[in-house]
Amino acid sequence: MWQLKNKFVTLTEDEKQEINVLVLELMDNVSQIDFTSILPKVAVYAQEMSRRLRQVFYDFKLYQQEHTLCVQLGAIATTS
Questions:
Q1: How crowded is the C-beta side of 37, counted as CA atoms within 13 Å?
Q2: Both ends of the chain: CA-CA distance in Å?
Q3: pLDDT attached to residue 24
Q4: pTM of the model
Q5: So what's the pLDDT on residue 80?
Q6: In 49-72, which positions are buried (b, 16+ CB within 10 angstroms) versus exposed (e)?
Q7: Do the beta carbons of residue 15 and residue 48 sit within 8 Å?
Q8: Distance between CA atoms of 70 and 80, rounded to whole angstroms?
Q9: Is 49 helix (H, G, I), strand (E, B) or coil?
Q10: In angstroms, rounded to a whole number, what is the distance separating the alpha carbons of residues 77 and 48?
């Protein structure tokens, strides 16, 4: 039976702050999300993310060993 494979990466506090700054800068003076104006900038802004995160995204794209990549802000609590 087919099973979905997921990869999870948890952001560090520094990565959270860096990404927040990038998003705020990217969305500066934008009242509505217009993907046609944002998409050309995304690849350039992504280069300012941490090397660790860029490597995770690159490996996910290159090797495609998992079906999804979930970027987490913190640990996910599990219940029994």
A1: 9
A2: 25
A3: 86
A4: 0.71
A5: 41
A6: beeebeebeeeeeeeeeeeeeeee
A7: no
A8: 22
A9: coil
A10: 30
Q: Is residue 77 part of a domain?
A: no
Q: Which residues of the chain have pLDDT under 70?
A: 1, 29-31, 74-80
Q: Is residue 38 part of a domain?
A: yes
Range(s) of the domain holding residue 14: 6-72
- The verdict on residue 19 lying in a domain is yes
What are the two backbone dihedrals, phi and then psi, of residue 11, each rounded to the nearest 5 degrees? -70, 145
Q: Are 4 and 68 in contact (CB under 8 A)?
A: yes
Task: Please state the domain count of the chain.
Answer: 1
Measure the CA–CA gap between 75 and 16, rounded to whole angstroms: 13
Residue 27 lies in a domain: yes
In the chain, the amino acid numbered 43 is A
* pLDDT tens-digit series, residues 58-77: 999 998 888 999 988 865 55
Cα 24–Cα 30–Cα 31 angle in degrees, nearest 5: 120
